[in-house]
Design brief:
Chains A, B: Keywords: Magnesium, Metal-binding. Chains A, B: Its cofactor is Mg(2+). Chains A, B: InterPro entries: 6-hairpin_glycosidase_sf, 6hp_glycosidase-like_sf, B-phosphoglucomutase_hydrolase, Beta-PGM, Gal_mutarotase_sf_dom, GH65_N, Glyco_hydro_65_C, Glyco_hydro_65_M. Chains A, B: This is Beta-phosphoglucomutase. Chains A, B: GO terms for molecular function: beta-phosphoglucomutase activity; carbohydrate binding; glycosyltransferase activity; hydrolase activity, hydrolyzing O-glycosyl compounds; magnesium ion binding. Two copies of one chain form a homodimer. Helix content of chain A is 37%, strand content 21%. Chain A has 30 helices and 36 strands. The first copy, chain A, is α+β, with helices and mostly antiparallel strands. In chain A, strands 1-2-9-10-11-12-19-16-15-14 form a ten-stranded antiparallel beta sheet, with helices on both faces. In chain A, helix 4 crosses helix 19, helix 6 crosses helix 10 and helix 11 runs antiparallel to helix 13. The N terminus and C terminus of chain A are likely disordered. The two termini of chain A are 28 Å apart. Chain A folds into four domains: 277 residues, Beta-galactosidase, Chain A, domain 5 (Distorted Sandwich); 414 residues, Alpha/alpha barrel (Glycosyltransferase), CATH 1.50.10; 151 residues, HAD superfamily/HAD-like (Rossmann fold, 3-Layer(aba) Sandwich); 67 residues, Putative phosphatase, domain 2 (DNA polymerase, domain 1). Chains A and B meet through strand 14 and helix 7 of A and strand 14 and helix 7 of B.
Chain lengths: 963, 963
């Protein structure tokens, strides 16, 4: 894991994920990353204007439809995004014309995705475009999208059309049939129905124009209702288009198309909808946020993972759960796995318990499916589906069918054998109950699930008379590289635990709710004989554990398998199963994901057998090196990270945590396009709270014994425990001293920080403009601050006609004039305070670098007479990507031989501060707060600033000032 | 099989299939039936305006794309049909507003599908709409569609929009990604690509308006380019819209979108394109037509089946074949079976040998696929795929996967075991060669297929040392109800035959083309040893035949299976496999389709072992009653029909022939929606030519020994044999006498035939109009001829406002006046000649019926004084469907106790003649030819007409006058 991943063009700030470049190759990875949602639906981060092969998707939880081989999938719903901007016959598209600037930003705090683009059309018209969208968290059936268009160098007519696309597809398949479509009074609507499951969906939209006047027209081809407005705008004038959308399905409304239209008619303005939405997010974050200081990347990544869980969690529906890839992609077809109960649920149990209850109630509603599955396999009780959808019937595909005439079909055995899911659900119910004391729900729902699961186990467990023990044969444990095993320690211990809890729950029911106990006795056949058998089984179910070595054997015979040294296969970019083949992995001691260690992790919460530190260490030493943690299951890294924290291996823990936290942001496994790794996201919360935070529940209540990564100054989170909120605000010991000592270098921007060449630029532009006979003055020059040479020229020439060759020549000429003029720079041009600070830094042994985008930086430094005070220069020749990308500063740190965290950046431009933050450096902003307010410290200039002051401001106030 | 199937609302004429009613329930059956095409593509008979759940499809042969489970399928291509007509905000749709009249017609002779509709919009505007379309047979990349709109009761503005629909679907799946779309100068175009196989397709269209002036506008949403024209028309004025479309794929053009646009720009007018198209069809029918006299239904059905084969046969491409469901539906996914070689090919060999060569060359191009398959299964040579697509690799699905969580997956064994396909192909090649003497092709392509097939057999056949014979074990024969059998007589004999022919072909090659022989020896490894083994195998391959009984056993052990009496299961509507289950059928002596009988049929062509009449009879008696001929395979009936002909069972033969011929027209098996049964269609040609025509190839050349169905007067067809065309014009012996004697009844229309009540109607309308103050006169009355009471009234009131209740009252009033007035009818109102003819008929013992739509018919007859001359009256109360439906006349025949073929209809209206023809009756038309020209005999009136004259005209001129 590199500290930054510039190839993804991301800048990470505390609350904002910023993309700085459009890369068509990454369109589907980014489509996942920029998913928004509100628990009712998720919408992938596709662009309003649409691109070929972009996987656009809006998935509404619970809207399943039939599909071959995998039985059922979440149906991609009609797309509410399409909005095209047409200027002079040309559609705005990033892959046509010229993108002069580009920034896409996901604001996690407010749940808003926005995009700022300056674009020049192939015919040469330049516009600023601003898009933003949100799925209202305040009103789940409301979606909104805003587009602002500002022509820069022309006056003219622009047409904007907004559509509903009734041809959504699941990898080519359109689940919907149009029932009707229509329009009226500037609104359009669509009424469709899934082909097999017959879920109806109604979607309605209106388009509102402000900032100018326009004409409206509705066109209607099958499945693609469209409303178009045409309006005139002048250069500099901004037109605002608001597309407001409502969507309902027959899952929550009898006449969804009708209700969608009615709702649309009643909605207030975009701004009001947005305010309500932002308010709802504020409330959510009050409970679910985690604050990290000292590690912007980790801060952003953690919030990002929590955000993606929050946007996929059902808030008003207890008949759905969170699919393995949330509502953000087609991977696993929207099916629900143990991922929810074991990996995701703790976050909700401890920060949004109502959502946790919804998620568990889904399992209650699918009990009959679990019973049908048990019955199909010849068992009793509730045997939960490994992959579950609407009904709870098993929907794991039986086959992986390679689409080649002579390839072998691969039987998938999870549906038959990965049976620990039933106990995983029991486990989650138990801890939900422990955390919430929600006795009512336990009585009505939870108990029945746990008890009927125990009924299943009674029919599934076998007695081995020879060994005089109970056994569970022919299973798949947590580790899916071994497909046909017996007495898997993970499964057997979880089942044993399940039986123990079933007995306890039954006893509790009898004590507290005897009527319900009697009801379930009858319904589930809970005889005294059966309960005795549970006790007997719990007592005599075999766990393959050797007390002499302290090692738990993953399953009976695992230690007899061929051993393997994974290091021999490095470097690699594929899973060990892909390398060895299914049979090859089956035969070796190689794990896809933690199995014994997973068990130890789960038992850790209450320190139940076989959990203790010594056994953990022994088993860690054995299993961790044999686990395919990089390309096996994405469920592994977070869990390994927590255990590494427990074992005091902080660096390893942090590395594993980052591997989990960046899995989607940086597409660590190459499959982020399929959707968010929800279990990994849940694991990230556990890694931070249980791992780094050392959070534990004791008899006395929740406590935390933190072991923060060395560079974290603070970790703050909330926990809900038995009706009370607990605030944990954990600070690194002696953080100030440590932090101060850390700074080894200062990187100065040049222009506006050490000197001011604005005057020289102005004179050069003025001379050029005069020669060309173009009006230009100081006021016009003001608008060029922070703007590139080409862009400055474009603004000056406006809509005058120049060929590209002429433009090139003019840029060259202006630069010549500028370079000529800076020959006149002298040490007197140093800004006040600069020389003093540089001298002081050198005296203190702090290294100094220049980080300037100017290609003339070196010459200017010479003329300023400070060349001997500077250790390194990163200039316009050093890197490809300009600020706000972190590249220039990272390059400067490298030249100084320092880590980014050892550097301070001094900057006077917003993009420079962003670049410093993205590089993971401390930042000092010179100038007004509206320009450089994102910096750690804001100062008017360097005048009178000492190194001591600076340090004190940088570290003394870090705990409070930024939030 | 009933003689007519009015539930399908079809009228059959010699060349036209006419549908008289729109039934949304039959939309997909009819979608198949009204498929048009040109060998390059097929377009299902969907409507231009589109309906929910209609399976629209345009399939281009060879454009395959990947799909799960079944590997590959013909990708449904962008739909070129969409054309909507909008009047006053309302779209023309048959399921909205009121359909006043409806007729859809497939003109087989000219390859044109047309539709005439009179429609009243929900807002009450009445229009005539006429649509027609064709896929040019003269220029395969050109498609054309015409729409004519005539407002009847309003002047106003009409908008017509024409689109290309880039969202075609194969059962929900869209194989295409849009690359680009565009428009220019009134044209629109689309450039798309298949997702996996990356076949590109370009489609361009223009919309031309004539008959009025209009404005044009192009709109463009993704995947649905649309051109719209808005124009004004006055009542009675006709606007004509021509939509001309071009389509190319990357299979035949490097830049298909570009080529499509260029081609479109060069095209001439709709009329000129249509003339070229009709000319091309004329040429095709000159060789491929079959003329049948005496059986209009059979005539139409035979031509219909041949038409569907002709529109799916590749004319300019030898890398494709004819899929089992042609290019008309999604059944079998466009895969190619033995259906082509064994069932379809004879029609082409003997009437379109160039097409036959294309079809066989497809197998040559897929030889490497067949070799890959052999190699996969561990054999040598060419093992052809049971289901074949682009490459010839095996694409039979391995599994039938029921989409229910706990249903069992069904293994499909045909890919592994139905290996007779390789010899079926050899068989077809041999007979193509025999018929054409195409030595060049045999040298270059055919020989290699036959020889490499024999190489395969050498590796597949096993020697049984115990029995001292060669055997072929573990196969599926022609009968697919038995999936795992050994020494299947059909397979073994076909393989034996194949080896015999391989030896002969090899010898011929050595003699005639020694260089090619040497080349193939090397390439295929044809050693002398191998050739010896072929001889040995051919001599000693076991055929389970018992000369003492004359019975061939279907396979080793078949006679030991449990026997079955199919009669016990009647009546049924499902196959025996569905009733018994797969295993149940496997265990019993029940056949899906002929197997031993199929073998006897195939060996019949050259009377090779084991074919002779006696053996045929014995095996027929055994196997025919055990064959599920109704709901087993659709491949069975035609073959059984031919054998029944051979055995002199004419009635049975005709019944079986009709079962095959009507399989799609009347949806006999309930699965016509999946596409045309191509093998059955090919079987129909064989049943007519080989069965009824008794056509055979002898050493002296082709001969025919006909056994026509008893009511056929003539059968005429052409055969191409070794560069010469042979005309067969077979007439039933003594057909005149037989036919004359047959007529037992005459059905007279009343009004215009026996009397003329037009004057009475006119007076009633006049009186009503006068009372209402509406202008009306004799001229206006003329326009009401043949129009219903309600429609007449609507025309009279025009756009005056009346409530439905008022209209009802007015109709009632007019009828009252009319009924009052016909009280004045006397015998003097009989038309000249009527009474004389009636008397003569009675004297001759001919029964007389009245077939009149009037509800007053009975009263009029009373007043005319002919009630005693009439045996039966079918009037306006008798049936639901009015003329041109045959119902009224069929009812009259029934009242007379006669078969339709025993009746003559006398009519003065076009719709009446059509009704008579549809009823399968002889028809006499009174009036001008432009009105009643379709009748068998046309006369000015009954004046002076005698029964003798009539008979002489009806039968004396039948042989020539009608064609």
């Amino acid at each position: 894991m590199s500290a930054s991943a510039p190839s993804h063009h991301f800048i990470y700030t505390d609350w904002n994920l910023i993309e700085t470049q459009f890369d068509p190759e990454q369109i589907n990875h980014k489509g996942t990353v920029f998913t928004i949602g509100n628990g009712y639906l998720g919408t992938r981060g596709s662009f309003e204007e649409g691109y070929p092969r972009a996987l656009s998707a809006t998935l509404i939880n619970g809207v399943y439809d039939d599909v071959p081989v995998v039985y059922t999938e979440l149906a991609n719903c009609p797309d509410w995004l399409p909005l095209t901007v047409r200027i002079d016959g040309e559609n705005f598209r990033l892959d046509r014309g010229e993108v002069l600037s580009y920034q896409r930003q996901l604001d996690l705090q407010r749940g808003i995705l926005s995009r700022k683009v300056r674009w020049r059309s192939p015919k040469g018209k330049t516009l600023d475009l601003y898009f933003e969208r949100f799925a209202s968290l305040a009103d789940q059936n409301v979606l909104a999208l805003r587009c602002q268009v500002t022509p820069l160098d022309f006056n003219g007519s622009i047409a904007v059309s907004a559509s509903l696309n009734g041809y959504p597809e699941n990898q080519g398949y359109n689940h919907w049939e149009e029932i009707e479509r229509g329009d009226g009074d500037g609104t359009i609507w669509l009424h469709v129905r899934t082909r097999s499951s017959h879920v109806e969906l109604g979607m309605a939209a209106k388009l509102l124009l402000s900032g100018t006047e326009g004409t409206f027209q509705v066109t209607s081809v099958p499945g693609y209702p469209t409303v178009e407005t045409t309006f005139a705008v002048a250069a500099g004038q901004t037109a605002t288009l608001d597309k407001i959308v409502t969507v309902f399905t027959s899952r929550e409304a009898q006449t969804p198309a009708h209700v969608a239209q009615e709702k649309l008619a009643q909605l207030s303005s975009y701004s009001q909808l947005q305010s309500a939405h932002i308010g709802a997010w504020e409330e959510v974050w009050q409970h679910s946020d985690i604050l990290i200081e000292g590690d912007t990347k980790a801060q952003l990544a953690v919030r990002y993972n929590l955000f993606q869980l929050l946007v996929s969690a059902p808030r008003h529906d207890n008949r759905v759960s969170i699919p393995a890839k949330t509502l953000s992609g087609f991977g696993y077809r929207g099916h629900i796995f143990w991922d929810t109960e074991i990996f995701i649920l703790p976050f909700f149990i401890y920060t949004q318990p109502k959502i946790a209850r919804n998620l568990l109630t889904y399992r209650y509603h699918t009990l009959n499916g679990a019973r049908r599955k048990a019955s199909y396999y010849g068992y009793k009780g509730a045997m939960f589906a490994w992959e579950s959808a609407e009904t709870g019937d098993e929907v794991t595909p039986r086959w992986a069918l390679p689409n080649q005439p002579y390839a072998e079909d691969i039987r998938i055995w999870c549906r038959d054998r990965e049976i620990h899911i039933s106990s995983d659900i029991a486990y989650a119910i138990w801890y939900y109950w422990q955390a919430t004391n929600d006795d009512e729900w336990m009585r009505d729902c939870g108990a029945e699930i746990i008890l009927d699961g125990a009924v299943f186990w009674n029919s599934r467990i076998e007695w081995n008379p020879k060994q005089q023990r109970y056994e569970i044969r022919e299973v798949i444990g947590a580790d899916e590289y071994h497909e046909h095993v017996s007495n898997n320690a993970f499964t057997n211990r979880m089942v044993q635990w399940h039986l123990e809890k079933a007995i306890a729950v039954y006893q509790w029911l009898c004590d507290r709710f005897p009527e319900r106990a009697a009801e379930l006795e009858t319904k589930l056949g809970l005889t005294a004989k059966l309960r005795d058998r549970w006790e007997d089984m719990a007592a005599n179910l075999w766990i393959p554990y050797d007390p002499t070595t302290g090692l738990i054997e993953q399953y009976e015979g695992f230690f007899n398998l061929e051993d393997i040294d994974l290091a021999h296969y490095e470097p690699r970019t594929r899973s060990m199963q892909e390398i060895l083949g299914i049979e090859g992995a089956n035969k070796r001691q190689v794990l896809k994901q933690p199995d014994v260690l997973m068990l130890l992790y789960l038992m850790r919460q209450s320190e139940e057998f076989p959990y203790n530190k010594e056994i953990l260490q022994k088993n860690w030493d054995y299993y961790a090196p044999r686990t395919d943690i990089t390309y096996g299951s994405s469920l592994g890294p977070a869990i390994h990270g927590i255990l590494a924290s427990d074992l005091g291996q902080s660096d390893e823990a942090y590395k594993l945590f980052l591997q989990a936290a960046m899995v989607d942001l940086e597409d660590v496994r190459g499959n982020a396009a399929d959707g968010i790794h929800a279990a990994s996201a849940g694991g990230v919360w556990q890694a931070v709270v249980f791992g780094f935070g050392g959070f534990k529940l004791t008899q006395e209540g929740p406590v935390a014994t933190p072991h923060l990564p060395s560079h974290w100054q603070r970790l703050k989170f909330k926990i809900h425990w038995r009706s009370t909120w607990y605030d944990f605000d954990l600070r690194a010991e002696a953080s100030e001293q440590k932090a101060e000592g850390k700074i080894q270098g200062v990187i100065f921007d040049l222009d506006g920080v050490l000197t001011d060449t604005a005057e020289f630029h102005y004179r050069a532009w003025q001379r050029l403009a005069d020669e060309e006979g173009i009006p230009f003055d100081r006021q016009a020059n003001e608008a060029l601050r922070g703007i590139s040479r080409r862009e400055s020229l474009m603004r000056i020439v406006g809509d005058r006609n120049y060929t590209e060759a002429q433009l090139e020549e003019m840029m060259e000429r202006k630069n010549r004039y500028y370079v000529e003029s800076i020959q006149d720079i002298t040490p007197n041009n140093l800004l006040p305070g600069a020389r003093e600070l540089l001298d002081e830094l050198r005296a203190a042994g702090i290294k100094i670098a220049i980080g300037s985008a100017s290609k003339n930086a070196r010459m200017v430094i010479e003329h300023l007479g400070i060349a001997d005070k500077v250790d390194a220069i990163a200039d316009g020749y050093s890197v490809q990507l300009s600020k706000p990308a972190p590249d220039l500063f990272l390059h400067a740190a490298e030249l100084l031989g320092l880590e980014p965290s050892q550097c301070v950046v001094v900057e006077d431009a917003e993009s420079g501060i962003e670049a410093g933050l993205a590089a993971g450096m401390l930042t000092v902003g010179l100038g007004p707060a509206e320009r450089v307010g994102k910096a750690h410290v804001v100062l008017p200039s360097l005048e009178g600033v000492t190194w001591e002051d600076l340090q004190s401001q940088l570290f003394g106030t870090a705990a409070g000032s930024r939030y």
